[in-house]
Amino acid sequence: MTPKQFAAILGFAFVAAIIGFNFGYALLCLLGAGVGYAAGSFLQGELDIGDLQSRLSPSSSPSQPAPPPRPRPAGAPRVR
Q1: Residue 21 gets which letter from DSSP?
Q2: pLDDT under 70 in the chain at which residues?
């Protein structure tokens, strides 16, 4: 089974859950599936929590502001 086929089956199941239950319960099921996927990835060593935290946290050193643009000489053409 290809990833596209699997995604199509999951999408169908999600819509079926919305129809069968209600939108809130379907979102809870989707959230639970995401948590389960993340936990499985962590247990298999595919997900590094420390790396994820470093990517999501703001950097400690402030970035340098961009220098202001240089003014164009008055007689210079725009296109060269």
Answers
A1: S
A2: 59-66, 72-73, 76-78, 80
